[in-house]
Specification:
Blueprint lengths: L2 E3 L2 E2 L25 E7 L3 H11 L9 E7 L16 E5 L7 H10 L5 E5 L3 E3 L3 H9 L5 E10 L8 H9 L16 H9 L19 E5 H6 L11 H11 L3 E13 L3 H4 L1 H15 L19 E6 L5 H12 L6 E6 L18 H10 L5 E4 L11 E4 L4 E3 L3 H12 L3 E9 L2 E9 H10 L6 H8 L2 E5 L5 E3 H4 L7 H87 L1
Parallel strand pairs: 3-4, 3-6, 4-5, 8-10, 11-12, 11-14, 12-13, 16-18
Antiparallel strand pairs: 1-2, 6-9, 7-10, 8-9, 14-17, 15-19, 16-17
Helix pairs in contact: 1-4, 10-11, 13-14
């Protein structure tokens, strides 16, 4: 069972809902864990001085706080200022590398703290910044805590290190700088707010908020995941956040851990250039970034799905059917691991056709040179860094879209396990299973001897049973080789079908556009007709009114003449 600290039981957190934890109020608890603040730095001695001055005024106990500044090749070299935490060291990056990731690796290699707190060298933290982080780490040993940044343009004369230390110590850090209204991490705020404080954020989204300015995590977790990737010169925080997701880490955005960011980030000043630089490297390492993996037929460093097929007791034909079915998936970024006793295949003399290991040799011969297929005698407990693993019994063939549909189903509700019931035999129900790597890793922390791992996954992430027919799994005898004899031809067929559908869509769009134009013209004609009708109605009404007026005039004229005649007759008779 995972523990935040010896003697402290870590509760089971479902998904990313850290709300089950109850962190103590600032200043109302007793810290016990040590923390190492690692600061990669290059140039900007003046900003570093302010960063260290703020750390010298933290509420977290000094004997539990160490600071390691790693000089990444500054010229002139950086120096430690007079105002800094008591236990502050300045080291150079280890020989053989450079950059932020390399500096972080150099610093964490010599860190003594139970928690690693990465901080940039242009951060001025508020008084209780470290404490706000650390109160979470005393509760569980798989939390990644992110601080909250306020950006300042540093207009005018900046404060001195002494002024920063005094202001922070007196809890007046907010008054040190003017906030920059034009810059900020609004996109992080929106993500956090849109997912109930990130408590119901889906697994595929968690790594997005892992920015490196101020973030902390248990040192054991940091080292277990492999630390920072020094081959990355930018985007190393995003990639590390992705790998932490696959360990089942919980991401906590701590709004109370405030700090000033002195000036803007490179990503803010040169956003387009940063994306152009980072996209190829992130696409290769972070399968969740689906929009970066739109190129057809590409293979990537980290697959989206690992497919596992076990050869135990299986014939060559059954294994081949399952492997080829997976390789022909419409989901291209996958790898297949074929499990078997491969070390038993020696090169000694044998009867080729009567070899008891013939099926195993045929499987190896079939896929020895396929870059998407690997051989293993056993598989690790999880498929990390791949986010999903499909375990498929030999002799069952996933349909062309089965993998894509299963992953889509898992992502829809952020489920940890999908079980496809294939058949039932004397041993029980035969299943294909899609596992979420993060869910398995989280469940493994807590599963007791008297518990089923699947039950714990279901409690923490959810699990669903599915039927084989609906999800297009078929036995090899029905599915193979009639449906395809060559995965390249199958890929071409799918591409041709996709292009055909695209042409049909374009043709339909043109037809819709033509119909819309025709409808527009008809509406215009109707409108013209309505206007003409209205004009004729107006003219007819005018003619009617004129006729009425004429008739009335005529009637008045007739009456006048009749009246005159009558008067004349009266006069004559008199």
């Amino acid at each position: 069972m995972g523990t935040g600290h010896p003697g402290v039981s870590a509760p089971r957190i479902p998904g990313n809902d850290y709300g089950v934890l109850d962190p103590p109020a600032i200043g109302a608890w007793e810290p016990r864990m040590s923390v190492s603040v690692v600061i990669p730095a290059r140039q900007n001695q003046e900003k570093l001085d302010l960063t260290l001055a703020a750390l010298a005024a933290q509420t977290y106990p000094a004997h539990l706080l160490e600071v390691i500044v790693v000089d990444d090749g500054s010229a002139p070299p950086l120096r430690l200022p007079e105002i800094a935490p008591e236990r502050t060291r300045l080291i150079g990056g280890a020989p053989g590398g450079w950059g932020i990731a390399w500096a972080l690796e150099s610093g964490t290699a010599v860190a003594d703290g139970e928690v690693i707190h990465r901080m940039d060298s242009d951060i001025v933290s508020y008084r209780d910044h470290i404490e706000a982080h650390m109160r979470w780490h005393h509760l569980a040993d798989y939390l990644v805590v992110m601080g909250t940044l306020r950006f300042t343009a540093m207009a005018g004369t900046p404060p001195t290190p002494s002024e920063v230390q005094i202001a922070v110590a007196k809890d007046r850090a907010a008054s040190l700088f003017e906030a920059d209204p034009d810059h900020g991490h609004d996109w992080i705020d929106e993500l956090v707010a849109g997912h109930r404080g990130f408590r119901d954020a889906p697994s595929a989204l968690l790594h997005r908020v892992h920015v490196g300015a101020t973030v902390s995590l248990p040192a054991a977790l940091f080292r277990a995941v492999g630390g920072t990737d020094p081959s990355l010169t930018l985007g190393e925080d995003t990639e590390l956040g992705y790998r932490l997701t696959q360990t089942g880490a919980v991401f906590v955005p701590e709004t109370g851990a405030l700090s000033w960011h002195l000036g803007t980030t490179t990503a803010m000043r040169r956003a387009k250039d940063v994306r152009r630089h980072n996209d190829p490297f992130i696409a290769d390492r972070v399968p969740y970034r689906r929009h970066l993996r739109s190129d057809p037929g590409r293979q990537w460093l980290v697959p989206y799905v690992e497919v596992v097929v076990d050869t135990l007791g299986a014939a060559f034909e059954d294994v081949r059917a399952s492997v080829d079915g997976a390789l022909a998936s419409t989901l291209p970024d996958l790898r297949v691991t074929v499990v078997g006793p491969w070390s038993s295949l020696t090169g000694g003399r044998r009867a080729p056709l009567d070899d008891p290991l013939l099926d195993l040799r045929l499987i190896q011969g079939q896929y020895a040179h396929d870059s998407r297929v690997s051989f293993a005698e056993e598989v690790p407990p999880t498929s990390a860094p791949a986010p999903f693993r499909l375990t498929c019994p030999a002799g069952w063939v996933p349909g062309a879209e089965s993998l894509a549909l299963l992953v889509e189903q898992a992502e829809k509700d952020d489920e940890g396990l999908l079980l496809v019931a294939l058949e039932e035999n004397e041993s029980g129900v035969v299943t294909a299973r899609l596992e979420r790597t993060a869910a398995v890793a989280r469940a493994m922390r807590f599963t007791r001897d008297d518990e089923s791992l699947d039950d714990v996954i279901a409690d923490l992430y959810g699990a669903t049973w599915l039927d084989a027919e609906s999800w297009k799994f078929r036995p090899a005898a029905r599915a193979y080789p009639a449906w395809a004899s060559n995965r390249n031809r199958e890929a071409v067929r799918w591409r041709a079908e996709a292009e055909s559908r695209k042409r049909e869509t374009e043709r339909a769009q043109r037809q819709v556009a033509a119909l819309r134009a025709e409808l527009k013209e008809l509406r215009a004609s109707v409108a013209r007709g309505q206007r003409d009708t209205s004009r004729w109605r107006e003219k007819a009404e005018q003619r009617r009114l004129e006729a009425v007026a004429l008739r009335k005039a005529q009637e008045r004229s007739f009456l006048s003449r009749a009246t005159r005649r009558l008067r004349k007759l009266v006069r004559d008779s008199a």
